[in-house]
Amino acid sequence: MWGSKKDHPENGNDSQGPQDDRSSTRRSLERREPDERTRLLHNRPPASDGYLDPDDPAVSPYNLWSVRFLRYFTVLFLMISFIWWVLLLVSIFVSPPGMHSRGSGFFDFAYACLTIGNLLVAVIFFVAPAKAMRITTAIIAALLLVDMIIILAVPRIRIEEGWVGIASVVWAVFIALWCIITDRVVDWGKREEEERLTGRPETRRTLKEWFAVLLATIFTIVFILITVLMTGTLGIRARDATLGMYGDRIFVDGDKYQVHLACIGNVTYTKGQKDATILLEAGETPLEYDFEHWAYGAYQNGTISRYCYWDRPGYAWSDNAPSPHSAGMSADALSEALAKTGEEGPWILVSAGIGSITSRIFSSRHLKQVTGIMLVDPLHEDLLHRLSSPGRGFILWAYGIISPLGLERLSGALFKGRTREDRVYGRNAYQSGKYIKAQLQENLIADSLSKNEVASARNIQSADTPVVIVSSGIRCRTDSEWERKQHDLTKLTDNLVSWDVVNQAPHQVWDTYDGRRIMEKSLGALVKAAGKMKTLVMEEAAE
């Protein structure tokens, strides 16, 4: 009436006991706080053999706290690197306090980009570890370590990169090593969880996993190629750093950077008066390439007795200045460099192209010291908008971003016999990231701050200062606006000595024989006119 015996607990039937024990154990597991071993498993029924299916989402290296810890820090490092990348991007256009690099160009930004690339690959393909990724990342780390050694070992590069460039390459090395360790730990965690939960490490991969590994490996191989090129370019820079220079580098602007200044010849006197020193200002290319050669020829011919020349910030041996940097700031840097070396003038300014903007500003700020001005196919302030176009600025920025790869510099050195001279101040100087940054700085404020400075200089300029202008005949014939502006510059003062248009000469007038001859002849006339003007002033002062 009460049921069979086997169903009654008092008859010694133990069938109900084990079931109660299993239920009690299950309830105990459900009440227990999940840990790294049970976080994803406590609600999942086991297979008949007690193991999970290998494709079960619960079979994941994320079960391990160590793997989760590495992922959190990888994401954190990515965020830090992105903030650093933004700061370096901003510093190209406006240098934050203390973040100015004197000659790095774009190397620090390139290292930041490479660091973010490595971290993105690590985060996106975090759960698809592969030996190929570890090998390729190890190659990247080794190359970056070589870069770090070069930067720290070569004094000139160490100075040019500054703490910003050094920090960027050290961080890049650390992140590359971190990515290797992370991938290795995730691979270990993946195998351990597979063995614990499925009974054996998984040897097969899904098509999705194979695709992820392939994609990640392709990215890291691209990073290897980028790093190889950057290492080669650093080697070129180390080689170029051994090139000697005439003159000295002088700290200016509160010792933020150095500019190169050199003088040829001895100070001479005529009738007890100190003769003027010619002060050269380069155009769109470094002055040492060929413009200074013309001045040296005039010096050897006796047309002039002494001349000085300098490199604007970012050109040849001069450092980059902090951004933004205007023509007036260059004129102030030149003034400071001359004062620190004891050069007092009087000066006859000889400038070409865009350098005429700086010379005119310098003249207006040293009216008593400047006794003559010679402009060689000068750029008029109304045409500065040609330099400041957004399209040109973007091209310069893009060219600067890829400049650390040194595609042209490396090919020129390996296959075309380009020398240190070619790269530092010669025909290949335009390939340097430092030079590109200087051009970009000119582009950013040419039609704003620089234009306002030179416009003010024109109003201040002394009306009796002798002026000589030599223009390119080719440029004047092909650009009517350029010709009109050349004519307007003849009215810069009331004392125009001569205006010569050299028929077959390009913008770099000194590249032709006629151009060099007419330039030297005009310079000789300017020296005489400046001497007469000085004598007249002295006589008037005596009276």
SSE string = HHHHHHEEEEEHEHEHEHHHHEHHEH
User: Do you know the CATH architecture of the largest domain?
Assistant: 3-Layer(aba) Sandwich
Low-confidence stretches: 1-16
Report the average pLDDT across residues: 87
Separate helix tally: 16
Number of structurally distinct domains: 2
N- to C-terminal separation?
149 Å
The CATH topology of the largest domain corresponds to Rossmann fold
What is the general shape? elongated
Main features:
single chain, about 550 residues, alpha/beta, Rossmann fold, 2 domains, eight-stranded mixed β-sheet, two-stranded antiparallel ribbon, 16 helices
Helices and strands, with pairings:
Layout: H1 16-31, H2 65-93, H3 107-124, H4 131-153, H5 155-198, H6 207-240, E1 248-252, E2 257-265, E3 269-270, E4 273-274, E5 277-281, H7 291-300, E6 306-310, H8 327-340, E7 347-352, H9 355-365, E8 370-376, H10 390-402, H11 407-415, H12 420-424, H13 433-460, E9 467-472, H14 473-478, H15 480-489, E10 496-502, H16 513-542
Helix pairs in contact: 2-3, 2-5, 3-5, 3-6, 4-5, 4-6, 6-11, 8-9, 9-13, 10-13
Give a verbal description of the structure.
This protein has 2 domains: 180 residues; 295 residues, Rossmann fold, CATH 3.40.50.1820. The chain is 55% helix and 10% strand. The chain has 16 helices and 10 strands. The longest helix has 44 residues. The chain is elongated, with a radius of gyration of 35 Å. The termini are far apart.
In short:
This protein is an alpha/beta fold and 543 residues long.
